[in-house]
Automatic annotation (TrEMBL):
<protein>
    <recommendedName>
        <fullName>Helicase C-terminal domain-containing protein</fullName>
    </recommendedName>
</protein>
<feature type="domain" description="Helicase C-terminal">
    <location>
        <begin position="991"/>
        <end position="1144"/>
    </location>
</feature>
<keyword id="KW-0547">Nucleotide-binding</keyword>
<dbReference type="InterPro" id="IPR001650">
    <property type="entry name" value="Helicase_C-like"/>
</dbReference>
<keyword id="KW-0067">ATP-binding</keyword>
<dbReference type="InterPro" id="IPR038718">
    <property type="entry name" value="SNF2-like_sf"/>
</dbReference>
<dbReference type="InterPro" id="IPR000330">
    <property type="entry name" value="SNF2_N"/>
</dbReference>
<feature type="region of interest" description="Disordered">
    <location>
        <begin position="1260"/>
        <end position="1294"/>
    </location>
</feature>
<keyword id="KW-0378">Hydrolase</keyword>
<dbReference type="Pfam" id="PF00271">
    <property type="entry name" value="Helicase_C"/>
</dbReference>
<dbReference type="InterPro" id="IPR049730">
    <property type="entry name" value="SNF2/RAD54-like_C"/>
</dbReference>
<dbReference type="Pfam" id="PF00176">
    <property type="entry name" value="SNF2-rel_dom"/>
</dbReference>
<feature type="region of interest" description="Disordered">
    <location>
        <begin position="1192"/>
        <end position="1223"/>
    </location>
</feature>
<dbReference type="InterPro" id="IPR014001">
    <property type="entry name" value="Helicase_ATP-bd"/>
</dbReference>
<dbReference type="InterPro" id="IPR050628">
    <property type="entry name" value="SNF2_RAD54_helicase_TF"/>
</dbReference>
<dbReference type="InterPro" id="IPR027417">
    <property type="entry name" value="P-loop_NTPase"/>
</dbReference>
């Protein structure tokens, strides 16, 4: 029947028969494209014209079953269902040419908002909608947009054909979307925006860069122009005719007009790290500082703005209505109609004060406080805080009797011009300094620290422009949320206060100590710095922000989520860190039922030649985590109106379509892009760099070789891993790399990382235990393992024996310090000070022919301090002090271990105490009496060390602050020839050398994951006398804040030691220009964020970054693997997997290798213990004749009174002059100058008061001045002991 109906004579005129359809007009639909349906071989091709679009309406399955190919029957059922339920309209005709064996079908999509259907298309059963979405997912990818096919002609070339809804070519990751968001454009036209753009913003002291001005204007536009915006959940989509419709990819809903949604008054300021987000926020605050918040919108309640003056005395309709309503509520009965207010005539002053507080914008009242004070109006102005009455929005039940209904009581809500800024606790002080730096004085700042209570709500609202709080302090207010108490009104009996003829009632009735005053203010703005913490919906911070009444909200962060990282400023695009998805290719290839490509017929594939097919990237759990964080920010913190009203909307329409098992649905990435663009403000790097360029950043990885003793430690650790792998046969939980041993494996990696710097263990990493059973290991391995494992075991045992038999290595591992090689230290002094055994006192090795000793860094530091105070302290004194110091250290260790044993932490660590700790347990450490006794012994030992170090007798008072001298007499010390060489850590040697080379002109920022490593560096810096500061978890917060300021402002402190986890965000340390990472950082974003502490706006020097790694170890492999993942996987974004999950790294760690003997060290330290000057002077004195010998010397005497000079070379009577230098006692040296033939005709007066003796050779000579009395015999100066002429003996101390 249908076949006959299609028959028509080719030359017959066109028929315009109309198929009657009362609901739809085909020209109002989206002309999506065409589909070619395969036909059976025995059809008769004829062309028949249909009405409206000149094609025939597609009949149902019953009419087409005999015509179409059997494989297309299921597809025809889909078309039939969608047509029957008004999702599509299809028309058809037979094809010709290359499509002569196909039925061409035009597909029209019907919009849900079609006019004149009484909304029927929006009201459908859930079962029909679910089935329709499933069928549309099959239909839409088959639609081809080809204008020739659409007109019934032959198919065009593949370059002119495209799929209407095929595989999306947008395969960006969330990180790539984030990086490609368009930069904001200063399109806002207003006097305020123009002032910002021109750089004439008042109250902002600093000048903004052009891109910063654009960001501020964009923020201002979101705040002040909250007009409707196109719904970002719908994407524009065009038909063959070019007409635009709007499509929702998750629900397959089509609309002819795009919905308009309310724009949020806030968003996410996510500019790149180091581009000045802080000053942007302050620019926004300063630009709007006089703007006051407005009452919270209400559909049921009119909320007029009032002040105490207007509420009590003004006769405006709003004031009268508010008073009447409140009076009615307090009385709990309806107000009588004849109840009238007593008429009051407000004064002009009262009207003026009311206007100033309710219309503050543009008045600049803050600049006229002096005038108000002169007129005695300032107190009245400050007390007249604007407010409104907030009634709970409860719809009235009209069925209730008015007699039974009780209207709820309101709570007073103060209006304010203030902004709350919430910052991490470690950035509180830095933000305070930034406000003072960038803003003018009239900006009123209140800093709420953790222990500081909040002022009353009226003061918070009236007296401040910025309220700065830490995140922890702000979150603490979440527990004071009993808002019901704020609605418990009673008639106010507070007495009015007269302020210069203006009466204001200063009401105290509405204060509740158990309710936070934050709940009584309608805040203008809330800003949360490092706002990624708002990505969790369960924190007190987010919960409190939802309960507070806030007009505008901003999140400020360079890293909104884990993988959205603003780290490219100044470094280029190479900082995209791809995700390793090599194992997902098989799952990415679509073709399964329900996937976008599974429904395309072979004819479609042959006719629509597309670009070579590439698998769709399937989004991972990390992507879902980022999406959930973004959703929490928008729904729970920012409370975007569109998503806050339906908390599941973001998940259903954004996340689920992206997380489809076969990859993101077509156009779902476009939806995410639109959503992010509506909420985020950020500039692309190219636009930022048009305005400002940072200094050059150079970053290199420095490969080092381990010190011989550190190499033994490394090989021992590798040997233990090898023995474990072989003995466990690499199976079961005994194997370190078993999946259940993730925590243990992580600890091994941390220990190995520490060994790359320096690591100690009093158990010698179980080397002795393994060697005891070495025969057993060899026997078991020979029986059940391969020859390769047997060879590996023999190598492991060899390295274990080599280390365990080395007494020096064993001695060093018993002390948690990096020891320094010291050359030239006297043996007796060394033995008095060293904690090491006497057998390792003098060492030579392959690289050093001169014997050296290993010295404790703290002892070297103490020795230098001691000699600086007492430069001529003899060897006996040094020995005595050394033994006292060692005794004090032992007692201090015993005391600390006693406290640890008595603490809960110590009891938990009982099984992990070292050998020395176990020896100390021989004492009854748990006895309080014993602990008291040990403490007293420690105090006595400390007093003795302090006393003898100062050169006093026991019981003698010692000044608490002593100055150190740089006297040339240091050259006479027994330690003058001591020189400090390399340490046992090659990384520390490199750091010391780099600091010695550059610390005079540049500052250093040194990062490490390990606080122990930073402690080692700190000890070494003390030895070389370079001052440093620490920023670790052990340092309390207040001290950390002070350290940041000190480092930035003081030239004394040249090195900042920072734990890596504290270097992520917020800190500004631009005074440093050299950065050192003590170990490679696997997550490159963490590394880059740390670098951003230095490489940011304000940096004027080139920044040099060095990452230290040990050659041929897992550190070198880590660096190579990380770079391979970053460059080899392109720019697909995402974060690197955990290092223990990366196959390459895991294989390297699981297959231990041993390091060969190291080459000679590239860096050889040679540092005089007492300084270069003392060393040079000591060498000079060593070259002089021995004590008692005489040496002719040219000298010069100068009479300071007569300014006469006498040169012995010009005086014949001074023949045979000589100088004699010899030690006298511990504090002085005698210098004797003999005038053997001092002639009576000499011009030198016998009563010379001051003589200067100048000794060549210059510049090594010293100018020495001493007062000489008129009677040399009776002169009592202890520094000068003259003898009778012609011999003068002078004692002096330099």
């Amino acid at each position: 029947m249908f076949h006959e109906t299609l028959q028509c004579c080719t030359g017959s005129p066109l028929s315009h028969s109309q198929v009657a359809d009362p609901l739809f007009n085909i020209h109002k639909f989206l002309a999506a494209g065409t589909i070619a349906i395969s036909l059976t071989p025995n059809y008769a091709p004829n062309i028949v014209v249909h009405v409206s679009d000149l094609w025939h309406i597609l009949p149902g399955l019953s009419a087409l079953s005999a015509l179409v190919h059997p494989d297309e029957i299921a597809f025809i059922r889909i078309l039939d269902f969608l047509s029957q339920h008004h999702f599509i309209r299809a028309t058809c005709r037979f094809g010709h040419g290359s499509l002569s064996s196909a039925l061409l079908v035009r597909i029209y999509l019907i919009p849900y908002d079609l006019a004149n259907v009484q909304g029927q298309l929006r009201i459908r059963e859930d079962a029909i909608l679910t089935a329709a979405r499933r069928y549309l997912r099959i239909l839409l990818p088959r639609i081809v947009q080809d204008i020739s096919e659409w007109n019934g002609g032959d198919a065009q070339s593949s370059t002119l054909r495209k799929l209407f809804y095929g595989l999306s070519q947008d395969d960006r990751t969330m990180a790539e979307i984030y990086s490609s968001l368009p930069s904001p454009v200063a399109s806002e036209v207003s006097p305020l925006a123009n002032a910002i753009l021109d750089g004439t913003t008042t109250r902002l002291r600093s000048e903004l860069h052009p891109y910063q001005r654009c960001s501020v204007i964009a923020m201002l536009g979101k705040e002040l122009s909250p007009h409707g915006v196109p719904d970002p959940l719908y994407i524009p989509i065009r038909g063959v005719d070019g007409i635009e419709f709007y499509f929702q990819p998750a629900t397959f809903e089509l609309l002819s007009e795009r919905p308009i949604v309310q724009q949020m008054r806030g968003g996410i300021l996510c500019e790149e790290l180091g581009t000045g987000k802080t000053v942007m926020v302050l620019g926004l605050v300063c630009a709007t500082v006089d703007q006051s918040s407005s009452p919270e919108e209400s559909l049921l309640d009119d909320r007029p703005v009032m002040t105490p003056i207007s509420f009590n005395s003004l006769t405006s309709p709003s004031s009268i209505a508010s008073r009447q309503r409140l009076n009615r509520v307090i009385k709990s009965r309806p107000a009588k109609s004849n109840e009238a207010e007593s008429p009051q005539i407000p004064s002009l002053r009262a009207i003026l004060l009311h206007y100033l507080r309710t219309h503050p914008d543009g008045l600049n009242v803050r600049y006229h406080h002096d005038d108000l004070e002169d007129r005695q109006l300032l107190q009245a102005y400050q007390a007249n805080v604007p407010f409104y009455l907030h009634y709970n929005e409860e719809p009235l039940d009209t069925n209730w009797s008015r007699r039974r209904r009780t209207e709820p009581k309101p709570r007073i809500m103060y209006l304010t011009t203030a902004t709350i800024i919430i910052v991490p606790v470690n950035l509180l002080y830095q933000w305070e300094m930034e406000v003072l730096k960038h803003c003018e004085d009239p900006l009123r700042l209140l800093v709420i620290r953790d222990t500081k209570p909040l002022p009353p709500a009226s003061e918070l609202a009236s007296l401040y422009d910025i309220i700065l709080m830490s995140q922890t302090r702000f979150s603490a207010e979440a527990t004071k949320d009993c808002l019901e108490k704020l609605h418990t009104w009673k008639r106010c009996n507070c007495p009015p206060v007269l302020y210069s003829q203006v009466t204001i009632t200063n009401c105290q009735c509405h204060r509740h100590d158990d309710v936070s005053p934050l709940f009584q203010v309608r805040w203008k703005r809330l800003v949360i710095d490092e706002g990624h913490v708002a990505s969790s919906s369960t924190t007190n911070l987010v919960s409190l922000s939802k309960k507070l009444s806030i007009e505008r909200k901003w999140i400020v962060t360079g890293t909104p989520t884990t993988n959205l990282m603003g780290l490219h400023f100044g470094e280029g695009s190479e900082l995209q860190y791809p995700e390793d998805v090599a194992n997902s290719a098989a799952n990415d290839v679509v073709g399964l039922p329900g996937s976008p490509r599974s429904d395309i017929s072979s004819s479609d594939l042959s006719s629509a030649e597309e670009e070579p097919f590439k698998p769709i990237r399937v989004w991972t759990s990390d992507d879902r985590q980022d999406l959930n964080k973004l959703a929490n920010m928008m729904v729970h913190f920012l409370q975007a109106p569109q998503f806050a009203s339906d908390s599941k909307l973001f998940t259903n329409l954004v996340i689920n379509s992206l997380m489809a098992p076969s990859g993101p649905l077509p156009h779902s990435i476009e939806v995410l892009t639109q959503v992010m663009n509506t909420v985020m403000i950020r500039h692309q790097i190219t636009d930022v760099e048009k305005d400002i360029l940072l200094p050059i950043l150079s970053h290199e990885t420095v490969l080092l070789d381990l010190d011989p003793y550190a190499l033994k430690t490394y090989n021992v650790m590798q040997a233990t891993i090898a023995v474990n792998a072989i003995d466990s046969e690499r199976v079961d939980q005994d194997y370190l790399f078993h999946p259940r041993n993730v925590g243990h494996l992580q600890q091994i990696i941390e220990n190995m990382s520490q060994a790359m710097f320096w690591h100690t263990d009093e158990n010698y990493f179980n080397a002795d235990e393994i060697l005891k059973d070495s025969e057993g290991y060899l026997k078991r391995t020979a029986e059940r393992a391969s020859q390769q494992d047997l060879t590996l075991l023999k190598d492991a045992l060899h390295h274990l024996k080599s280390a365990a038999s080395d007494p020096v290595w064993r001695a060093l591992l018993c002390h948690a310090n990096v020891f320094h090689r010291a050359f030239g230290i006297p043996e007796a002094i060394y033995q008095a000070w060293t904690p090491l055994p006497a057998s390792v006192s003098s060492i030579t090795d392959f690289f050093s022919s001169n014997p050296y000793s290993f010295c404790h860094p703290e002892h070297l530091f103490k020795l230098h301090q001691l000699i600086s105070k007492r430069p001529l302290l003899n060897e006996a004194g040094l020995i005595d002090i050394g033994y006292a110091v060692r005794k004090e250290e032992l007692l201090r260790y015993r005391f600390n271990m006693s406290r640890l044993q008595m603490s809960k932490a110590g009891k938990r660590q009982k099984d992990h105490l070292s050998d020395k700790t176990m020896k100390l347990k021989e004492f009854d450490l748990t006895s309080p009496g014993k602990l008291k006794h040990i403490r007293q012994e420690l105090i006595d030992a400390q007093d003795r060390v302090q006393t003898i170090s100062a050169g006093a007798t026991p019981g003698e008072h010692v000044a608490p602050h002593e100055t150190y001298t740089t006297s040339p007499l240091l050259a006479k010390s027994p330690l003058a020839q001591v020189r400090i060489g390399n340490t046992t850590s090659s990384k520390l040697n490199y750091i010391i050398n780099d600091i010695l080379l550059h610390a005079k002109t540049e500052k250093f920022l040194i990062f490490s994951r390990s606080p122990l490593t930073l402690a080692y560096i700190s000890e070494a810096l003390d030895v070389i006398r370079v001052k440093s500061l620490h920023f670790t978890s052990k340092v309390n917060l207040k001290t950390r804040e002070q350290y940041v300021t000190t480092f930035e402002t003081s030239d004394t402190y040249r090195v900042f030691l920072m734990e890596l986890k504290h270097g992520a965000r917020g800190l500004n340390l631009v005074s440093a220009s050299r950065v050192i990472f003590c170990e490679p950082v696997w997550q490159a974003d963490v590394e880059t964020q740390a670098i951003k502490r230095v490489h940011r706006i304000g940096q004027i020097r080139p920044v040099i970054v060095k990452t230290l790694a040990i050659r041929l170890t897992y550190e070198e492999t880590m660096v190579s693997r990380r770079e391979a993942l970053r460059s080899g996987l392109g720019s697909s974004g995402g974060k690197l997997p955990d290092m223990t999950d990366d196959r390459t790294m895991r294989d390297f760690l699981a297959n231990p290798t041993f390091l060969p003997d190291p080459p000679p060290p590239e860096i050889e330290l040679d540092i005089p213990l007492l300084g270069d000057e003392a060393a040079r002077e000591s060498n000079r004195l060593a070259s002089l004749p021995e004590a008692g010998a005489k040496k002719p010397l040219r000298y010069m005497l100068r009479d300071d009174d007569s300014d006469d000079d006498f040169d012995n070379s010009a005086s014949a009577h001074e023949e045979g002059t000589s100088m004699q230098m010899a030690p006298t006692h511990s504090n002085h040296t005698a210098l004797s100058v003999n005038f053997d033939r001092l002639h009576a005709s000499s011009r030198i007066s016998p009563t010379i008061k001051r003589v200067r003796l100048i000794l060549p050779p210059e510049p090594a000579s010293r100018d020495l001045q001493h007062a000489i009395g008129s009677n040399p015999v009776q002169h009592e100066d202890p520094e000068v002991r003259p003898r009778k002429k012609p011999r003068l003996s002078v004692r002096f101390a330099v």
